[in-house]
Amino acid sequence: MTITSYLQINALTEPKVHFEFKPFGHPGSLGIRISPKGKKSWLISYRFNGKKKKFSFGTYPEISLKEARTLAGTLLKDIDSGIDPNETKRGYEEAETFSNLWEQYLKSPSYRDKVETTQKEDQRKYDTLLSKPLGDMKLVDIRKKHLSMVLGSLAEKSPVSANRLFSLLSVLFKLALNKDLIEQHPMFGMDKPAKEKPRHRYLSKDEIKVLWPKFDTCRPNVRDIFKLTLLTCQRPGEVMGMKWSEVNLEKNIWTLPAERTKSKRHNHLVPLSQQVIDILEPREGNKSEFVFPSNHGADCGYTSNLNKARYKLIRDLEMEQWGTHDLRRTGRTMMSEIGIAPNVAERVLNHSMGKIEGTYDIFGYLPQKADALNKLGRKMDDITGVETKQ
Prior knowledge:
- By secondary structure, the chain is an alpha+beta fold.
- It has 17 helices and seven strands.
- Strands 1-2-3-4 form a four-stranded antiparallel β-sheet. A three-stranded antiparallel β-sheet has the order 5-6-7.
- Helix 7 packs antiparallel against helix 8 and helix 10 runs parallel beside helix 14.
C-alpha cells in the first residue's frame, strides 16, 4: 500500500490523528500527522531516558515515503547512540546567527581598538553588504558558497572593496571560532576575491596646481580637510576627527592621541606649518569639540564623507582617479623630492620605525619634523603660486 492510499483510507475516520507504523523492528516508529488544513508532516515517536517523545522532520510529498523511512532510520539510530533529536533541534534554534556575531564583534577589542572612522566603515559594510544576505543565517549554516556570492558580486564592481570585506569577514569568523560558536572557519582555504596592485598614485605638480584652487569650490570642511591631509601628511581619518583639545596654535603643535592613531602605541606630535595655521585660525570658536564639525549640528560628530566632493573634482577636471589617502602619499613623495631624510619623513607619517627604535625613541625628531613640514608647506606655496608668509 502506498502512503497516499494509506492516508486516504485512514483520514476518512480520523483526519487529525497521528498514524503510526513500525517498519524497522525498532521500539520507535515512523508516522505522519495530518493537520485540519491537510498538511502532512512526518514524525517519529520514541523513548529517551524513559520519556515518550515525538520529533517532526519534514512534510509529504516533499519527502517521499522511501526518503522518510531512511531519515527515520538514521534518527532512531542516533537515539540509540544517546542523541536526542529534539535537543539537537533546540540547540540549533538557539544557535547564534550572523547578526548575533556582529553584536559580539562590536563589543570586542578587534572593533573597539580601531579608530572611529574605521569603526564607521565596518558598520557601513555590515549594513549595506552583509546584513541582508547573512544577518538571519545561523553561523553553523554559513558555507563558502554563501560568502563567495557576497564577495563575488562586490568584486565585479570594486575589487579593492571586496578584499577589504574579505578581511572583515575573516576577523568575524575567527571571533566566532574563538567563542566556540562554530567548529570550523568557513573561509578556510578561500583566496581573496580579487588581485590588487599596490597603489602608487600620487598627484603631480601640474595636478596640484590645478586642483588646489578647485578645493575652494568644495564645502569649507571638505576643502580644508583635503588641504590639511596634503600639508600634514596624516591619515585622512585622523584629519577629519581632529579636535580643538589636540591643537595648540600658540606652540604650532597638533598632539594626535594614541587611541586615534593606527598603531595606538603613543601620542603622535605633528608640527603645524604656517600654511596649516592659516587654515585653522579662522575656524576657532566654532562651538564644537571638532575642528571640522558635521553640517548636521555641533553635537553630530565631524565631517566624514569626502567622496561626493572628490568624485566631482575628478570629473570636473577630467583627472585620473585619486583617493584621499593619495594626498598623504603625495605629501610624502614631495618630501623626498625636496631632500627630507627618509627616517624623518616616515616619522612625520607616524609609520612604525621598528620595535627597538619605536620603543625607545618616542618623542624625538620634533625639530626635524617641523623643518620637514615647513619646507613642504613652502613647496606647496611655490607650486600653487601662493605668496609664502614670513
